[in-house]
Specification:
Strand content of chain B: under 5%
Largest sheet of chain A: 5 strands, mixed
Strand order of the largest sheet of chain A: 2-9-8-4-5
Shape of chain A: rod-shaped
Structural class of chain B: mainly alpha
Number of strands of chain B: 0
Radius of gyration of chain B: 23 Å
Oligomer: heterodimer
Radius of gyration of chain A: 66 Å
Helix content of chain B: over 70%
Number of strands of chain A: 9
């Protein structure tokens, strides 16, 4: 059985009169007995006129066609019609293509142009646009990040300034206290030297008179329960030769401090003497602080001794211990 | 030049078809007279094309001569029918064709002799003939335009796509078109042929009207 292409070629050869006699007879038997086969052959024959009109034949085929078909007036007319029709179809196809081309070129709206601009970009352009978009986003993100960091930095800086001010104040306070302590230390050193000189003088005098005069007086003071001069007032008689008064202050069992500050005040509230950085020491009966006072600075009269403690942050706190004594001269 | 089938072909053997022999032949084709007439027309058309495709310039006359001879055989009492009547007509047609070619050869020899006599003669009607051809072409184009306007747009579209297409081979383009229409390639060919046939028929009739025929 012949396939479609072979069959078409064979039938074309038959129509052009170039098929061998045996095959020619076979084709004729087929189309005479088969209407469908016959119509197909008619279609193919008609198509040859259009192929001829469109110059699709080889020179050999063209010659065969002209010899086979164009000898009759009827077929020549048929060929003329085929030529005219194919030209007409060619013109209409060309016009259609041109109209389509013109329609495609019609001005579009701005958004359509914009859309097509992005849609029709080349791959490289698309990559470029995508990269630009990423860079823009990255820049926006960077700017936001910088602004946030700057705000955070300003806050930290403000906090730092406050802390620096506080530290500066603390440093000033510490410096002032150090200056005060230094001053007191010098004063105490001077007092000690004076006391030492007085003591040496008195010892020389006593050695000359053969008498022994107590120069150091030690006195124990317990804290008053209430801040009341009359009830807790201790009386102390100082001899004329007394140089140094050692007051042993007993502490209550309350809060303990690193160091203590003692101030001697008159009943009128005037400060007569003070001492800082006093250390408490443990005894058999509890804790106590020793105060060394030059005896000559204490004029006869009633005094209040106030005791304050240094807390761990360096601030002075009232200990709540109050001592009272009355100085007499013999 | 018109080569007319020599009457000696028919008269030589005295084959003159009669009404009786023709009716007998039709009766042999089909018992029903109407169907017999249809069968006759179909066979005649096919024989005409066979003669055309065999290069016969007088195909219709040859087809008629074939029928005359078959009818004569029937009148003579020859049993011609097999299951397939076409094969008998085919055989008779081939004999008619052979005789035709012999007559053509004889006519050609006679023409050659006549041509030698008129060797130096001038054709004074040449220019007029060319002018006539030009007018005929113009009429043809006018008729074609009219006929194409009568054709449905889808038909014009089909034959345009069937025949026109730059850069694409006919086979490929037609195969794609057939797939698009959902029909076999052969059916597409016949559909295009029928459309073209309708245009050609329309143009022929138009030209006949124009020429006053």
């Amino acid at each position: 059985m012949r396939d479609e292409a072979d069959n078409e070629k064979l039938l074309t050869m038959y129509l052009l009169g170039s098929l061998p006699e045996e095959q020619r007879l076979q084709v004729e038997v087929e189309f005479l007995s088969d209407d469908h086969h016959y119509e197909r052959l008619l279609a193919l024959e008609n198509e040859l006129f259009y192929d001829y009109a469109q110059n699709k034949f080889s020179p050999g085929e063209r010659e065969q066609f002209e010899k086979q078909f164009l000898s009759s007036e009827l077929n020549r007319k048929k060929a003329m019609i085929a030529l005219a029709l194919t030209r007409k179809l060619s013109e209409s196809a060309s016009v259609e293509a041109t109209e389509k081309d013109i329609a495609d070129r019609e001005p579009q709206r701005f958004w359509q142009s914009l859309k097509s601009y992005f849609v029709d970009q080349s791959a490289a352009m698309k990559v470029s646009l995508a990269a630009s978009a990423i860079v823009t986003l990255a820049l926006i993100w960077l700017i936001i990040g910088v602004v946030l960091l700057r705000n955070e930095f300003d806050q930290i800086r403000a906090q730092q300034t406050v802390q620096e001010d506080r530290l500066r104040q603390q440093a000033q306070q510490e410096r002032a206290r150090a200056d005060e302590l230094d001053l007191r230390l010098k004063r105490e050193i001077d007092e000690n030297e004076m006391l030492q000189q007085d003591l040496t003088k008195m010892q020389a005098q006593s050695a000359g008179h053969g008498q022994r005069i107590p120069s150091v007086i030690s006195f124990v003071l317990a804290p008053s329960i209430a801040r009341d001069q009359a009830s807790g007032m201790k009386k102390l008689n100082l001899s004329p030769g007394a140089i140094l008064l050692i007051l042993k202050l007993k502490l209550k069992g309350g809060a303990e401090y690193k160091s203590y500050h003692a101030t001697l005040l008159t009943v009128e509230g005037a400060e007569r003497w003070s001492q800082d950085m006093l250390q408490a020491k443990r005894t058999g009966s509890g804790r106590s602080i020793d105060l060394w006072l030059p005896a000559r600075t204490l004029a006869p009269g009633d005094y209040e001794l106030r005791l304050k403690g240094y807390a761990s942050d360096g601030t002075l706190e009232e200990t709540g211990d109050y001592y009272y004594l009355s100085i007499r001269r013999k | 030049m018109k080569i007319v089938m020599s009457p000696s072909i028919s008269h030589k053997k005295g084959r003159v078809i009669t009404r009786e022999s023709f009716d007998r032949m039709l009766a042999e084709l089909h018992p029903d007279i109407e169907r017999a007439g249809e069968q006759y027309e179909k066979i005649r058309q096919k024989l005409v094309k066979l003669f055309e495709w065999r290069g016969c310039a007088h195909a219709e006359e040859c087809a008629d001569e074939t029928f005359n001879r078959v009818a004569q055989k029937i009148c003579e009492g020859t049993s011609i029918w097999t299951d397939e009547p076409y094969s008998y007509f085919h055989g008779v047609a081939l004999n008619v064709l052979r005789e035709y070619w012999r007559s053509v050869e004889q006519a050609a020899k006679a023409l050659e002799e006549a041509a030698q006599i008129q060797e130096a003669s001038v054709d004074p009607d040449g220019l007029l003939s060319r002018e006539s051809e030009q007018r005929e072409k113009e009429r043809l184009l006018e008729c074609l335009n009219r006929c194409l306007k009568q054709l449905p747009p889808e038909s014009i579209n089909l034959i345009t796509r069937y025949h026109q297409g730059e850069g694409t081979p006919d086979k490929t383009r037609r195969k794609e078109l057939a797939q698009l229409l959902g029909i076999p390639l052969n059916a597409l060919r016949i559909r295009a042929y029928r459309i073209r046939g309708a245009v050609e028929e329309c143009v022929k009739k138009c030209l006949e009207r124009e020429s006053g025929g």
